[in-house]
């Protein structure tokens, strides 16, 4: 029996090699991952990377060209959307304007044949959870954007779906409200134990809300992991650049008796040979080094040692909480530094030469 079909209680959904072709366009290219019960997973990626196509395949609005999708161990091939126990919140909320808030929330229960008294009871319970019990008899147009969003969320959760899909949930909100609603939606979905798949192209939203993030690129799943894993151990330059801010330095590798060095013009990284990252480099000639801006120490120029670099300050920007420096390296590449070390930086100015230092443990190497 296929391992995936063994009805693992912790698995809510499995995608097995799912592809979707539109003529020559591979909207999805052999995507496989598992969603755990109670998990908040965000699909993140640039425009056209396949996020919406994945969401629509899960909802059943489109059928994969190849591969399978299992929900709770059950193959969904040929199962229409209304036969999948899935809740959805769309970016425009799609509330029914002629129904009150309570009627809107009760609607999915009505379509499932649940009687009015029970609908109202469960609808009011959901309204309590989303903090809108006082708005039950209002109409959607009498609510603010944030309130409408919470009604839409309550409607997506009220029938205890196996999975809740959120399609760009913050798209209609202004920036200030977004931050607040990210936290609120995260709390509400955790409180009711919902299993959530959300789509966004806002990396901050993904970092704030998700247990795990699936990063899409050109229809492929580039990497999936917790926000921490993706930030600390990106497996590609794309992921390193997409999650947080990254300096990507391309250099040549050199195997030394006691370690491995990656170096470019005016900078070097040295890793001990017993370090797994160092070991992987013994077989390659070139490598990409990921250096996070907040991990670089600004030091005086002129004393470069190991794990260090030098360049010329192009911009120095004071942001209150930190300084940002843009440094031009000898090879023409730019390095961004974020630092709160006022003592080290206050006296530096654009045009000065600057030294940079980093610790081997702060470095991520992307293979050759
Ligand atoms: N119905 C369709 N017909 C033809 N091509 C499509 C169709 N739907 C999607 N595509 C193509 O498939 C690819 C993936 O699209 P998809 O909508 O999944 O991307 P996305 O990551 O959600 O992007 P966005 O962030 O812009 O919504 C794109 O190249 C898109 O043009």
UniProtKB/TrEMBL annotation:
Q: Which Pfam families match?
A: ABC_tran, TOBE_2
* UniProt-listed SUPFAM superfamilies: MOP-like, P-loop containing nucleoside triphosphate hydrolases
Q: Tell me which SMART domains the record gives.
A: AAA (SM00382)
Domain called ABC transporter: residue spans: 13-243
Transmembrane portions of the chain: none
Q: Does the keyword Transport apply?
A: yes
EC numbers for this chain? 7.6.2.11
GO BP term, pick one: putrescine transport
Give the PANTHER family listed for this entry.
SPERMIDINE/PUTRESCINE IMPORT ATP-BINDING PROTEIN POTA (PTHR42781), SPERMIDINE_PUTRESCINE IMPORT ATP-BINDING PROTEIN POTA (PTHR42781:SF4)
Q: What does this protein do?
A: Part of the ABC transporter complex PotABCD involved in spermidine/putrescine import. Responsible for energy coupling to the transport system.
UniProt family annotation: Belongs to the ABC transporter superfamily. Spermidine/putrescine importer (TC 3.A.1.11.1) family.
What is the recorded name of this protein? Answer: Spermidine/putrescine import ATP-binding protein PotA
Please name the source species.
Answer: Shinella sumterensis
């Amino acid at each position: 029996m296929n391992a995936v079909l063994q009805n693992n209680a912790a698995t809510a959904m499995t995608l097995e090699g799912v592809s979707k072709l539109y003529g020559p366009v591979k909207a999805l290219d052999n995507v496989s991952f598992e969603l755990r019960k109670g998990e908040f997973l965000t699909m993140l990626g640039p425009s056209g990377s396949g996020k919406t196509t994945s969401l629509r395949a899960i909802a059943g609005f489109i059928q994969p060209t190849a591969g399978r999708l299992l929900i709770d161990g059950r193959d969904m091939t040929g199962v229409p959307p209304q036969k999948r126990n899935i809740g959805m919140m769309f970016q425009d909320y799609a509330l029914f304007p002629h129904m009150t808030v309570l009627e809107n929330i009760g609607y999915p229960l009505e379509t499932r044949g649940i009687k009015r008294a029970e609908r109202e009871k469960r609808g009011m319970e959901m309204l309590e959870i989303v903090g809108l019990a006082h708005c039950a008899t209002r109409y959607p147009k009498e609510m603010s954007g944030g309130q409408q969003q919470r009604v839409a969320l309550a409607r997506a959760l009220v029938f205890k779906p196996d999975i809740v899909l959120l399609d760009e949930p913050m798209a209609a909100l202004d920036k200030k409200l977004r931050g607040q609603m990210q936290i609120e939606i995260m709390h509400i979905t955790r409180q009711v134990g919902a299993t959530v798949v959300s789509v966004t192209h806002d990396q901050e939203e993904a970092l704030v809300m998700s247990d795990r993030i699936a990063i899409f690129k050109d229809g492929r799943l580039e990497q999936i992991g917790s926000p921490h894993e993706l930030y600390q151990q990106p497996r590609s330059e794309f992921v390193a650049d997409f999650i947080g801010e990254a300096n990507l330095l391309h250099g040549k590798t050199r195997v030394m008796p006691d370690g491995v060095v990656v170096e470019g013009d005016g900078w070097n990284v040295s890793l001990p040979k017993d370090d797994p990252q160092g070991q992987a480099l013994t077989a390659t000639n070139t490598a990409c080094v990921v250096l996070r801006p907040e991990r670089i120490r600004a030091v005086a120029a002129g004393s470069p040692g190991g794990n260090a670099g030098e360049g010329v300050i192009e911009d120095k920007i004071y942001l209150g909480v930190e300084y940002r420096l843009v440094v031009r390296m000898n090879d023409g590449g730019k390095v961004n530094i974020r630092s709160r070390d006022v003592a080290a930086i206050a006296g530096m100015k654009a045009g000065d030469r600057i030294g940079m230092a980093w610790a081997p443990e702060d470095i991520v190497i992307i293979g050759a």
